[in-house]
Design a protein that fits this description.
Blueprint: H1 2-10, H2 14-27, H3 34-39, H4 43-56, H5 61-74, H6 77-90, H7 93-109, H8 113-121, H9 128-139
Helix pairs in contact: 1-2, 4-5, 5-6, 5-7, 6-7, 7-8, 8-9
Length: about 140
């Protein structure tokens, strides 16, 4: 199913990909993966799916990271900032490095420069995102 969704996305046929998703759900009783919604750029559906999953397993960083990606795509900066702050307090360095670009984007859009400095400090020095956000901080 995932391969068919990907192929239809590459062919710029999002309606066909959604049709495959609905067919699989109705005719094969498949549980839909949250990432499928993301691939289809159905951000509200993906966010709802991640939030449902997180209710069952509140400590799973993948669900929180998925929520963060969705909130970023939707431009929900306040909510993204809140989730980022929660995750920042509850996780260690490897997870922080992954979430830092999303958290920094929220902080930037909300003019929270101190928070942005902290997030940028956790980014990989050699990454494009890290360089981009460091330049923004320098300009500010």
């Amino acid at each position: 199913i995932e391969a068919l969704i990907s192929i239809n996305n590459q062919l710029q046929q999002p309606e066909a990909a959604v049709g495959i998703l609905l067919y699989a759900q109705h005719n094969h009783s498949m549980e839909l993966k949250e990432s499928w919604y993301e691939k289809l750029r159905r951000w509200e559906d993906a966010l709802a799916a991640y939030e449902r999953k997180q209710k069952d397993d509140a400590t799973n960083p993948e669900f929180m990271l998925g929520r963060m990606r969705c909130l970023h795509a939707l431009g929900e900066w306040e909510r993204l900032s809140q989730v980022a702050q929660e995750m920042w307090k509850a996780t260690s360095d490897p997870t922080r490095t992954t979430t830092a670009p999303l958290a920094a984007a929220a902080a930037w859009n909300l003019n929270k420069w101190k928070d942005m400095e902290e997030y940028v400090g956790a980014m990989n020095e050699d990454s494009i995102e890290g360089a981009f956000f460091r330049v923004i901080l320098e300009i500010h």
